[in-house]
Structures are given as structure tokens and as C-alpha cells.
Amino acid sequence: MKIRIVSETPSGGWTLIRLVAKEQRGQLVPPPSDAEFSGEVGALLYERTARTLVVGLGESTSVDALAVRRAVSSAALNLRKLGVTDVVVELTHHAGFAAAAAEGLVEGSYRYEKFLQKKTLPISGCVFVVPKSDVTAARRAVTRGQALGESVNFAREIGNTPARRF
User: Which one, out of 19, 39, 80, 90, has a CA that is 20 to 30 A from the CA of 165?
Assistant: First the structure.
């Protein structure tokens, strides 16, 4: 998976992953009900017409790398099930967690399909949107996070493969 870092949202047929703290639910248009979108870590609200997946981060005071990784991982898993292959992750307010987001994206898009006849399409194109001042730091962080995610997925692949298949 190739992850690009940019400072402006690209145009085209991308699906947007938007990270939202619980307190920011009221800013969504139209505001979702509590039953529809709780805002808890990993809660999802897919706006099909806008091609946007809103993902909860929990309380804004408790947002950390673990919450971002879990939220982006949950989003990647959901989007892969929907057949989405190109995503934009909006990190404009959470650029410091770019490594965690990259790790979550790679881990969440993993699926063990070695012996399946029909395989699902993986997330192949990804763009992280960060403020212009954070692009260089985000590139380094994403490289590190992506390497960690790929290492975890490799370990999962080994654990999922039957011993007689090695």
C-alpha cells in the first residue's frame, strides 16, 4: 500500500475518512442521533452520497495514538468490506498521530485470504491530509507506522497459515 502525504484534499473518486471526537458530533450535517453515531472510539457513520466515513475518536480529552489507531483500523476494515480501494484520511487536527493512523490503516485492511477462491480488493491508494507545516514530520511518522503495521500483518499471516503449508 502506498500512502502519500499532502496538505490539501485531492479531488476525484476518493472516499474520505474523517476523524471526529464525541463532542464534535453536533457539527455534522445533519447531526446524527446517539443511536446512529455515538462518537465512541471506532464508531462509524457512512455517508454514501458524500463518500465519507465518519469515525469516532471518543472524548476529545482522551484522544491518543491508541484511539486514532483503533479508529482508522475500524474504518479500513469497514471500507474494505464495502469494496473501497482509494481513501483519504483527514488528519488536519491530528497530524501528530500520523504514525498511529498509518499503522491502523495497514492493520485494518488486513484479511487472511490465502486459500479463498474469490479475494476482496485491498485498499491500494491512500492519501493523508495534514497541515502544510506538518508534511515532513508526517512523512517520517507514516513510514514508521506503515512498517509497524506491515510487521504486525506479517506475524498475523504466519499465525494464520497452517504449519503444513510453510
Answer: 80
